[in-house]
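Lecture 7 notes: from sequence to structure.

We start with a single chain of 68 residues. Read the sequence below before looking at the structure.
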Amino acid sequence: MFFKKIQHKRFEYLPRYYDPEKDNDVKKRRRIKFSRSSALRTRRKSNFLFYILLLAVVLYLLIKFDIL
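Now the structure, written as tokens:
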């Protein structure tokens, strides 16, 4: 024959199994990691940096236009 014989595709599939105990452990870890207090701390830090940046811009403009 001049052409190759067409063959079916072969896949290397490794099945994953559900482990309820491991699933519960993962859920508990996620709940502990993403607590509300850590989210509030991050927001406070970003607000603080925003106010410092805003103050720096205002002072720069005041000095540039010789208002102070």
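Residues 51 and 57 are 10 Å apart (CA to CA). Keep this in mind for problem set 3.
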